[in-house]
Amino acid sequence: MRDTPAHATQPRAALHGHYPHAQSVAEFRQRLVAVQDRIAAACARAGRNPADVRLLPVSKTIDEAHIRMAHAAGCRALGENKPQELATKAEAMADLTDLRWCAIGHLQTNKARLVARFAHEFHALDRLRVAEALERRLQAEGRGLDVYVQVNTSGEASKWGLPPEEAAPFLRALGAYPALRVRGLMTLAMFSADADRVRACFAGLRTLRDRLRQDAPAGMTLDDLSMGMSGDYEIAIEEGATVVRVGQAIFGSRALPDSHYWPGMGG
């Protein structure tokens, strides 16, 4: 991961309008194969096993008909940015009993009930108030939730996430919330055409994870790194990502620039 060849894929800083929309099950299958092929190529460059990288398709703003096509093409987990959109889709497609919903965006405490009820994963935990709200709701639901702690590795004020130096005490504090199963860390890289700046965000999260592992609370393995999206997931894999959140490369470019949906990020 540290000796990435100079020819490795560069980030795409302007995705708006870049990807045509998939309109059939066959097209979705082709998109999924294409992304998996690029995942495998990135793993080969980094000397990694492709089986160690999980693709999480991101379906935010995508309608039910196209999500059902994606499911028929093989998608069994989907990421949603907004809790209300996740809940609405989960209820509408409850007949797809093998489909897992993952909350990947910033969460306000008053929406914790939706994540606790409908989500199988939460990728953006960065405040104890949210942890408390989730714990209370999860206990009422009688279930647990896999979570990733979000760290702001770019230092940008537009992004949510803990400063790296606050991650260790935050992880220790999460021991008070048994319904939250900490799986690893998450970050959003700088949205830039400069591959070195993007790579530094991902490498920083991996380095932080390796350091935190040395004295992590009992039972907290921090195995996973959720990082990388449509424009930079190959770089993320080269730097150790185990989960990549890819939306536009599968579903197609969104109608509006990504900053409309999630300020400070790609997609």
Detailed description of the structure:
The protein is an alpha/beta fold and 267 residues long. It has a single domain, classed as Alanine racemase (TIM Barrel), CATH 3.20.20. It has nine helices and eight strands. It has helices at residues 25-46, 64-72, 83-92, 112-118, 128-141, 167-173, 195-213, 233-238, 248-251; strands at residues 54-57, 77-80, 100-103, 121-125, 145-150, 180-186, 224-226, 243-246. The strands form two sheets. Strands 2-3-4-5-6-7 form a six-stranded parallel β-sheet. It starts with 24 loop residues before the first helix and ends in a 16-residue tail after the last helix.
Topology (elements, then pairings):
Blueprint: H1 25-46, E1 54-57, H2 64-72, E2 77-80, H3 83-92, E3 100-103, H4 112-118, E4 121-125, H5 128-141, E5 145-150, H6 167-173, E6 180-186, H7 195-213, E7 224-226, H8 233-238, E8 243-246, H9 248-251
Parallel strand pairs: 1-8, 2-3, 3-4, 4-5, 5-6, 6-7
Helix pairs in contact: 3-4, 4-5
